[in-house]
Amino acid sequence: MFAELGAHQPGDSILATNTSSLDITAISDGTPHPERIVGLHFFNPPPVMRLVEVIRGSQTSPETLSAATQLMTAWGKTPVQCTSTPGFIVNRVARPFYGESQRMLMAGVADAATLDEALRRAGFRMGPLELTDFIGQDVNLAVGTSVWEQTDHDPRYEPAQVQRDLVASGRLGRKSGQGIYRYAADGTPQDVDPDERRIEELVGGPVETDPVARTLAMLVNEAVDLVGRGEATAADVDTAMQLGTNYPRGPIEWGAEIGYAVVADQLAALDRAFPGGRYRPSPSLASMASTGEHGEHGGSARQGVDR
Fold first, then answer.
1. Element (H, E) at 15
2. Does the active-site annotation cover 8?
3. Which tens digits make up the pLDDT trace of 40-88?
4. Domain containing 239 — which CATH number?
5. Which of 21, 187, 234, 288 would suit a FRET pair with 135, their CA atoms being 20 to 30 Å apart?
């Protein structure tokens, strides 16, 4: 399609795609003017959501990138720039937010309502499991699978079996009446009472069973890794995650509050408990931890969410 567009549009036209995870470089390959192809990823609902990811392929010209960014600003949006990495900023950094609770649910650490409530108390607007039901388990799995496949099946992004099973059985979330939760005819979720005592037992305990610390450690690691590879700036990553996913803080800022050395230690503990590569610390995180970067707060992930 883009090759056909390129053949018929004037040479100075910008050709943009709203894809949430497809490779911009692959889309532009073989087109007459690959330098004018760019990603403009809007978030749902577009009239309300301010964030737009402006994604450069390997041949996108600086002029195209600048013009697209300026256009988004003129439209009243908040643009962030990134290279065409799998999942771009938001859909890549957010993978652990869903994946850790899914894995803790499979392991029987706690029920879905308890895990979701623990994350909501940390400042997240929705818990990860209720959010996948809201998005649609099939949609969320498709994006996660795309990122996993584009990263040569890196274990950090492997979709959880519980989500695969939900999709295979047609339990797609709110739109189908059942997903992680069951839903009444009016869309009201059922069985959503958390276990208050269990939350107190988990949060502040070992990172392997603390849904807050475990999730934050993975989010920080993913964000630091993306910045370390030069695919986006720290400021754009934090802006993207706050505006695109309504996180209470950007993961880079959160990592500074927790302390990067603390996060690295938490990941090392997770890697020992669950070997296989999912919890390996980013080289950039290890470097930051070794230089003592920790922000104004240190200690534990709990300190990062109490403020």
1. strand 15-17
2. no
3. 999 988 999 999 999 999 999 999 999 999 999 999 999 999 999 999 9
4. 1.10.1040.50
5. 234
